[in-house]
Structure formats: structure tokens, C-alpha cells
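quick one
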Amino acid sequence: MPGTLFNAGGSSIGWAAPAAVGAKVALPEREVVSCTGDGSWMFGNPQVVNWAAQFHKAPVLFIISNNRGYSTAPRRSSAPIPRAMPRANKT
Ligand SMILES: Cc1ncc(C[n+]2csc(CCOP(=O)(O)OP(=O)(O)O)c2C)c(N)n1
Ligand SMILES: [Mg+2]
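structure w/ thiamine diphosphate:
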């Protein structure tokens, strides 16, 4: 549905989870779903996000794609130094 899918407008990881709680506080009658990678989830300070969601009574569904690490960033930036790849991505 138009106007119902949002992102940070750039590549700012960590935005999705707190933004989803903010959206739920603003529009409590709507269902809010947040989709992130596991690295992005950790960047969003999950303890604070979960606390804020409870405090404001703003339940949100978090869907986290867990590949046990950063995949996109190291693949691009550390190609010349393969041993710099995070362990979780060496499997
Ligand atoms: C604020 C911010 N810091 C750092 C980056 C660089 N960065 C781009 S993708 C990424 C890793 C994302 O990890 P994850 O969410 O697990 O997704 P995956 O690459 O594993 O699919 C990082 C650190 C960024 N885009 N924004
Ligand atoms: Mg990941």
C-alpha cells in the first residue's frame, strides 16, 4: 500500500527499530513491522528500543534476518584484506 513502507532514506543502519516504535506511538491503531539485519538490529540499541516500546505501550513486530554478522560492508570494504572478514562470515 503506498505510503506504508519507510526507510532511513540512506544507508543508516540502526534506524529501523527505534523508528518503528516511533511510528507505533504516532499511529497506535496501525500494525507496525520492522525488518532489519542482525547487525542493523544491534546498531539500533535494542535494550533501549525494547524499553521504550514497553514504556509507551507500543508493540511492534521485529523481523531480524540473522546471518551472524555484517555481510554487506566487509564484502565491499575488506576485499583486499580477506583475513579482515568477520569470523561468522567465513563459513
Ligand atoms: C550508521 C551506519 N554505520 C555503518 C554503516 C556501514 N554498514 C553498511 S551495511 C553494514 C552491516 C549491516 O549488517 P546486517 O544488518 O547484519 O546486514 P547484512 O550485511 O549482514 O545483510 C554496515 C556496518 C552504515 N550503513 N550506517
Ligand atoms: Mg547480518
